[in-house]
Structures are given as C-alpha cells and as structure tokens.
C-alpha cells in the first residue's frame, strides 16, 4: 500500500502539471445539464490523463470517473479508483482558482486512500484510515471540535431555498455560513478546522477522496437521508466533527 | 495626495505587522450583540494603533472606526478616515485567515483613497477614483463583465432566508452563490473578476474602502433600498459590474 500511495501521489503532481499546461492554452467550455453545470476540455483531458496512468499502475482495477473515461462500475469488489479531474468547474472557469483534482482508492467498498490537490495553492492533502492525513509532507492533527454554535459551516444553498431537511435551522444555530464552491476545498476546510460542517448532495466523485481523508482524521461522514452512504450513487451527506454531527442530527429531519 | 497615499500604504503594512504580532500572542474574544458577532483584543489594539498613527499623519481630520477609538462624526466636511481593523472577525477567530484590514480616506463625503489588506495573503489593494487600483505594485484592469447569468455572486445569506428584496431570484439567475465572510475580501473578489456581484447590508467601515477601490475601476456601487448610499449609516448595497448591476436592479424590489 505504501508503494501504491507513493505512485498515486506522483500521479497527482503530474496531473497538476497537466492541468496548469492545459489552462495556459486555449480550452473550450460547454454546458452539461444547465447553464451553470459546466465542463471544459481541461476536465476531459486531465481525466483521460489520470485514467490512462491508473490503468498502467493497476491494470485490473475498475475506475469511476466524472466525465466518463472510466469504466461502468456496478459492484465494488476488489480495487476501485474514483476520479474527479476538476472539482469546482464553475470556479475554474469564472475564477481560475478555488478548484481541486481528486482521486480515491477503495477496496471492497471501503475507503483506503484519498487525494485532494488544491491546484492553484500547490497543496496535496493525502492519506486515509490507518495511514493518517498529510498536507504535502506535514501530518495533520484532527481539528478542534467546537460544536455547531462555535463553527462556521457550509451547507449547499439549493437545500436552503426550500429548507429541505430543516437545514435553515442548522445554519441559524451555527456561527456562520460559508460557500466556496468546490466539494474538495470544503472538505479540506473541515480537515483544517476552518469549517465544522460540510453538508451537500454529493456524487460519488465529489465525496470519495474526502471521505477517505475525513475518516483518516476520525471525522464523521454520514448520509442524512434515508438512503445511507453509497459509494455508487448521489447522497445528501455531511462531513463534520463528532459534536457538530450530533448537533446537526438533532435538528435535521 | 501622492504623499498621503504613500504614508497610508506604509501605515497599512505596519498595521499588518501589528496584527500578526497580536495573533501570535494570547488574545481575548468577546461577543458583542449575539454569539456570532465577535470582537477580539486584536480588533481593538489594531484599531488603536491605526487611529493613533492617523492622528499624527493628519491631525485635523476626523476618524470613523468600528470599535470606537475614532471620533463621533456627524458631518463629512473636510477629510474623514474610516477604519475597520479586522473585517471578518468570525473568520479571524475560527479560521485564522480570510480577514482584512481596511482604511478609507474621504473628502467632503467623496471617496478619495481606499486600502484593503488581505492580511494572511500579504496583499494590499489600494487606489481610488482618478488614481487607479493596484494589487501591491501591479495595476489592476477592470474585470470582464459577464452579466448576472455568467457570474458568481455573493449575496448576504440573512436576506436569502426571508427572500428580502427578491434576492432569491438574483441568486437563481446567477452562475452560483459564494460566501467568504469578509466584506473586504468579497469586494476584492469583485475587483479581480472572481465575483460579478457583492450584495449585503453594510456598515460605514464595511464599505468605505471597497467603494473607493470599486469606483476607481469603474464598477457600480449603489444602495438597493430607498435610503440611498450614505457614508455614515448602514445600507443595503451592491458592488457589481455595470451589466450585472442592471440585471440585479431588474429583479430586486
């Protein structure tokens, strides 16, 4: 596992170089489902680069990836990689910063290793359960648990309009709401103790790497809807410190 | 004015050193009006430092400041300085980053010079109408105007719960909502083109410096409530590119 970890870290840094080179060149932006659900040729080329390299490193593994260059995965037995080449594509397009590249390695449905690269800040968060979590070469300690009232939180604002699951009460009982627009960067903020909670509807590639890292620091990763945590489908999930998670579950329905 | 500008820039860098030294030491945190309206001894000491230095630089000017070490200002004739020692105090306390120090110089009620220091990123935005706007030593160009649908926006989330002034429509017609938790940093994001709109209820010290910089780049700074723009009181104000401002005024009531 240590050799694989080293190979995947090297891959993440190579993917960063690839992304920066593609950004510096001309790239195309297209809408997927709506005007604010974007994909770019940088997403696609970076994903192609990562999946090709994963096939060399681990030829028999399956790959789940956002833009479709991976496999059709229906069962999670054995080793499965989950790839998000550009997490926070709107930020990528509108801000040229505040986006991440994410990769996770699962075995028999369980998170083993997670990687979140904050591309523009040149910072790789990596690790997993039993391995610990590192920010580049520095080990991270679990964040201070300030409970909900003492914490800044990030709650998907789509939920907020309709007060879905009573999330307005969660926000009103927290210190304040922040929205950064990239699941990977929100989860980094929870790892670093800058947010006590991230609550959003997440697709497999949005959560997989962050879950490995969050569980590696003893944080809570849990679905708040009836469906439970599912690596293959979209879920309404929280990533939080223990006390914050307890406070949230007392409020949501 | 160029000499004064140079003196005020030097003051901003000195204030940054002061803030960093106070952060490294023990500081106290107190609640002001509610559990999430905080003030720290760093706010107070930094403000005391800035106001004392302003009294040396410009002995006859008046000073409006958040924590009360300035003057009681009732009219804006002559030169008035407006000081916010720590903008984004919640971020300061919970994140130890994402806060700003702000200073503005007004003459007869008109913005002349503005300064926003992103303390942890060591970046000073400075300038004003007729002077241009600079990021440290580099001149900034006006941001690209993408209109509301093409822009990420920051809208105070207190307004969102109640749909005050129909702000939910503003958000639904934008590319996405972001919330960073510091008026100074939100306005920097508008200057840099990373946000097309910042809309919030702002106190004099939240807006004064940002207004000088935004108007220095030809951006729109305008009250959306009946009260109009008022340097001495709290307003519901937008800072936006021209097309975004037009799009917003067509939606709000």
Mean pLDDT of chain A: 95
The residue ranges of chain A in which pLDDT falls below 50 over 5 or more consecutive positions are: none
How many β-strands of chain A, per DSSP?
A: 14
Strand order of the largest sheet of chain A: 3-4-5-6-7-8-9
Number of domains as seen in the coordinates of chain A:
2
Q: What would you call the quaternary organization?
A: homodimer
CATH superfamily of the largest domain in chain A: Fructose-1,6-Bisphosphatase, subunit A, domain 1
User: How widely separated are the two ends of chain A?
Assistant: 40 Å
| Percent strand of chain A | 25-35%
How does the major sheet of chain A shape up?
7 strands, mixed
Which characteristics define this entry?
5-stranded mixed β-sheet; alpha+beta; 2 domains; Myo-inositol-1(Or 4)-monophosphatase (chains A, B); D-Maltodextrin-Binding Protein, domain 2; 7-stranded mixed β-sheet; Fructose-1,6-Bisphosphatase, Chain A, domain 1; homodimer; 253 residues
């Amino acid at each position: 596992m240590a050799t694989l970890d080293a190979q995947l870290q090297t891959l993440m840094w190579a993917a960063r170089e690839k992304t920066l080179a593609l950004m510096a060149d001309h790239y195309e932006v297209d809408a997927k489902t709506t005007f604010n659900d974007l994909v770019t040729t940088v997403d696609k080329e970076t994903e192609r680069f990562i999946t090709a390299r994963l096939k060399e490193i681990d030829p028999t593994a399956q790959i789940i990836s956002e833009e479709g260059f991976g496999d059709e995965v229906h069962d999670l037995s054995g080793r499965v990689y989950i790839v998000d080449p550009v997490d926070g594509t709107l930020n990528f397009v509108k801000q040229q910063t505040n986006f991440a590249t994410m990769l996770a390695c699962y075995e028999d449905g369980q998170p083993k290793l997670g990687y979140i690269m904050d591309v523009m800040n040149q910072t790789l968060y990596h690790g997993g359960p039993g391995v610990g979590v590192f920010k580049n070469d520095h080990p991270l300690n679990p964040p201070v648990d300030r409970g909900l009232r003492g914490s800044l939180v990030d709650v998907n604002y789509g939920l907020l309009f309709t007060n879905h699951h009573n999330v307005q009460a969660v926000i009103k009982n927290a210190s304040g709401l922040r929205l950064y627009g990239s699941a990977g960067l929100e989860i980094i903020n929870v790892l670093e103790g800058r947010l006590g909670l991230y609550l959003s509807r997440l697709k497999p590639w949005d959560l997989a790497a962050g879950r490995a890292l969050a569980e590696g620091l003893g944080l809570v990763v849990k679905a708040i809807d009836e469906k439970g945590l599912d690596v293959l489908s979209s879920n309404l999930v929280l990533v939080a410190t223990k006390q914050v998670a307890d406070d949230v579950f007392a409020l949501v329905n």
